Amino acid sequence: MAPRRLLVSIVIPVYNGERFVAEAVDSALGQSWVPLEVVVVDDGSTDSTLRVLERYASTIRLVSQSNSGQAAARNSGVVEARGQVIVHLDADDLLPPTSVAVRMAALVNPGLDAVFGHVEQFFDPGMNETARRRISLPTQPLPGISGGGLLVTRAFFDQVGWLNTSLATGADMDWMMRAHEAGMRQHVLPDVVLRRRIHGANMGLPNARARSGRLRILKAALDRRRAADEPPHE
Predict the structure, then answer these.
(1) Could you report how far apart the first and last alpha carbons of the chain are, in Å?
(2) What integer best gives the mean pLDDT of the chain?
């Protein structure tokens, strides 16, 4: 008898994503891996995102909440997820059809907590030429060791804990740093497992708020390391 396949939950947080979310959901539902569920968390959208998602009522698990930020939406999706494996997908990105299957094939190696792959970036067809000329995209897929390209066991996600909702930016970065501190055993595949859409709004220049958020994350990581290195008090 063949071993039972693990249920994979693809979690998609979305806020005002009416332009792209249908393509993201379609790419999730189009995965070759079974069994699979798609959990979409609408984070208080004020555009027609919910109307778009209503078309998928019979094929996704839809969660609606007041606007609380992407980290809170990801957490809500994980709460609702029933799978033993979690995949994160942003609402403006796409999963190639074998994205989950190739990573699950690697995850059977004993001891792995997470599997990543390569990320291919592409311009959204609606992006004008002037905006495109300001951005230099890599010509080849690059390793994508980030929250957006994460496939992780639920057990290890729970070990690391929730994304930090107090961070206005960089919650994925913070979670990844905590995961590495927890000893995440990972593998990076040569396969393209994520297609990242570039549409201008997600390519803004770093601002003071973003820089401050990254510094806060780095300081927190340093504080945790110092605390771990301190000898126990007598």
Answers:
(1) 56
(2) 87
